[in-house]
UniProtKB/TrEMBL annotation:
<feature type="transmembrane region" description="Helical">
    <location>
        <begin position="818"/>
        <end position="841"/>
    </location>
</feature>
<protein>
    <recommendedName>
        <fullName>Nucleoside transporter</fullName>
    </recommendedName>
</protein>
<dbReference type="InterPro" id="IPR002259">
    <property type="entry name" value="Eqnu_transpt"/>
</dbReference>
<feature type="compositionally biased region" description="Basic and acidic residues">
    <location>
        <begin position="632"/>
        <end position="646"/>
    </location>
</feature>
<feature type="transmembrane region" description="Helical">
    <location>
        <begin position="705"/>
        <end position="727"/>
    </location>
</feature>
<dbReference type="GO" id="GO:0015205">
    <property type="term" value="F:nucleobase transmembrane transporter activity"/>
</dbReference>
<dbReference type="Pfam" id="PF01733">
    <property type="entry name" value="Nucleoside_tran"/>
</dbReference>
<keyword id="KW-1133">Transmembrane helix</keyword>
<dbReference type="GO" id="GO:0034257">
    <property type="term" value="F:nicotinamide riboside transmembrane transporter activity"/>
</dbReference>
<feature type="transmembrane region" description="Helical">
    <location>
        <begin position="558"/>
        <end position="576"/>
    </location>
</feature>
<dbReference type="InterPro" id="IPR036259">
    <property type="entry name" value="MFS_trans_sf"/>
</dbReference>
<keyword id="KW-0813">Transport</keyword>
<feature type="transmembrane region" description="Helical">
    <location>
        <begin position="672"/>
        <end position="693"/>
    </location>
</feature>
<feature type="transmembrane region" description="Helical">
    <location>
        <begin position="421"/>
        <end position="445"/>
    </location>
</feature>
<dbReference type="GO" id="GO:0005886">
    <property type="term" value="C:plasma membrane"/>
</dbReference>
<dbReference type="GO" id="GO:0000329">
    <property type="term" value="C:fungal-type vacuole membrane"/>
</dbReference>
<comment type="similarity">
    <text>Belongs to the SLC29A/ENT transporter (TC 2.A.57) family.</text>
</comment>
Amino acid sequence: MSSSLRYFNKRNALNAATQSAATTNFNHLRSIPRAWLIRRSKHDPKLKSVRVADRIKWWNIVPGDQIRLRGDKDNTIHEVLSINRLSNRVFLKNTAEDTGSETAPPKSKNFHYSRCQLYVGEFKLRPKKDPTGPLEDQHVFASRISTSQPYWDYNQHRWVWRRYAVTTVPRLPWLGRGMKIRIPWPSMPKRRYPDAGIYDTTAQEVAKVTYQLPLFDPSPLAPLPRVPEEDEYLRHVFNPHLSLGYDASAPFELYLQPDLANPHSRAKKLERWKAHQSALHALRKKIADHELQHLDGRTVKQAKADAAFKWREQVEAEQKKKKKARWMHSAQVAKWARKAEKRSKKEARQRRRLTELTLKEEPNQVLSMASSLGSPEALYRAIPQGEDVNASQINLGSEAVISSEEPTDPPAFLVDSSIHWVHLILGCAVLLSWNVVITAMPFFASRLAQSSLRSTFASYLTTTFTAANLIVLAHATATSKHTIPSRRTRSAIAWLILLNFLLSLTTFFTPSPGIFFAFILFNGAAQATAGAYLQTSVIAVASLFGPRAVQSVMSGQAAVAVAVSGVQVISAYASVHGKPRTFVGDGSAEERSARWFFSLSTLFLLFSLVAHTWMVRTPIYQHVAASLETERKVQGDAGHDEERRGLVSGHAHTSSLSSDRANSIRVAKLNVIYEIAVAYVFVVTLAVFPPITTSIRPTNPAIHPLLFSAVHFLVFNVGDFLGRYLCSFPIFLIWSARRLLTLSLARTLFIPVFLMCNIQRGTTVVHRDPVISSDLLFMLILFSFGLSNGYISSLCMMSAPSLEHNPRLKGKPEDVDVAATVASFCLVGGLTAGSIGSFAVKAAFCGCNPFID
């Protein structure tokens, strides 16, 4: 039995009966947790207790007391064996009963506290039945008890009070009101110790003085004695015969402290545990104070929760670190180092063997682009040999097998950033001719100043350019599978260099307006033709490198426009600086500006040719674009008789073209939503820009019209470039075809907005004040117009050929370049339709014949 409920736990609560009479705590007044009362099986002991309100705080019946039980007619006196303060039960001595079990000990009887009456003593009283009879000895018991005020005894470490009997049974006649009899507490038996044996230390030996204090000089000026070192003590112990300078009176316990003080003792463990707990509390307080000082918009409750989380994470990290440190002995560390070195050598050998692997060319081997880009170990795959092979899985043209794994876009980390920069430069070259022609409109207009073709020249030029581009682009799209893109790209850039050089020559002499008009239209159509072939080749190759490369091409198309228009603004400012707004020049300023445009564009095209030549020689290009660069060769090397007969008869080429045309139509039907969206973007753009926007004049008389026109080109191109650049951030990407179509159709609202600006209308139209009379507001509208143009068109061009984001191309990697070229064709178709639509828009606001006025 436990001495008391000093430690309140389930085990002590089950064994709450105690033989101790002292009251040292009040744990027996605490409530029992519900979990302690649950019995998992019938063999689990049952915790017996009463309600907290029914428990007795100050127990006056304790072990060793003599009592009787209420209702006992024999008045038998019992001695208290133990008490249970949780259940208010009193156990009696010499009342054990047999439990019927051979293993279980006999149990003593227990009774409730209320049935017990303390024995007061033996008194001479008259018999109850004969009040007049002689006196006789009778046992008297207390029926009511009072106590003194309890107090804490610091010497005995317990609560102390006195108990008194106020009323007794039988009643004492001399015990009147206010009188009471003190009932002494039972005397506790003294603890008996066993007799000392031969191995026990006697009291005399313990009382002996075996240590003398070291001698100190009583003078306060004397130095303090030096504490001997441990080596001196050890030399004296092992070599007592040597006369060593050792003071025997020195406290030798200083040397034996590491041996006598057990670091694993309970006291030392408790001390270390307390120090650890103190450090944890200090760390938690430090983190909490730091979090409360830097709330950063959080509430105090949230800051405390974050501090608790960080504290737990740091404590767990420290525990893991200590646990790992116990493993880190020198032998284990060396073993781990040897294993790591062996593993790295093995991986290096495997990678070297795979890198140097060379296989003979066989019909059942294929270089899988998706597999090789994702894993260098899976470069070759065999044709499936089972009977369930689907014919659609085999590409007879290239003898390649489509992997069972769904192909995706090339991983971005395998494509070097220099490839994206080259695609950016090629994108600049694709649209350089268009931007130079558009931004050189003031120069062309100055040469046609005395001609009636001046007012309609912009619409004629844009229509001719886009129409030629559309027609040639259709042919380039149809024949893209039968040409080598690198060769076509170099040829197109070379033609563009020549045509731009011819334009620069026109700035040195002044032909007649008719001849100049025809030459510019012819040169624009020729540049559109070369640009169409260049565009299909660049887009087809960029689509194989993934959406990032396509986005680079689109950004390059806008970047060149920004650069060209920026140079135009600088040239225009230099031409009109210091001259009045009404100054009408002789065209020399426009001529010098155009000369710079054409010369710089020629030099840039030369640079783009060098950059493309470098990219073609890179290993990543030869690997990714191998299907396009080697297709013609593979078709020419076919060895079957049927193929040879087809080539000789000429039917094979016609059949191949028909197949490619049908394939293009099939892909166009799959991506019809993307294609309509990208086409309508440029229908709206070319309907007003630049034929209509160049007719808008500044409302501020201090701004020169030439400078205003140049700035308006720059604003549009900057917005277009930023819109395309936004597509490089994943948060701004939209892959849904229906959403892109909705955004494209919403751009129609820009047309009436531009018609509300300060447009120079025809002479037959009544002039009205413009609704939008602010030049700054016009520039903001133009900037939004360019931003939406670049953003939506780039998203459409990126989504259409994407294997990952276009669900219509899932599992069809052979359609990627076709989808890209078809989308590019629709883009140019939108340019053409927008250019034609510009005549209708012009007729609507000027009320004239747009083809001659």
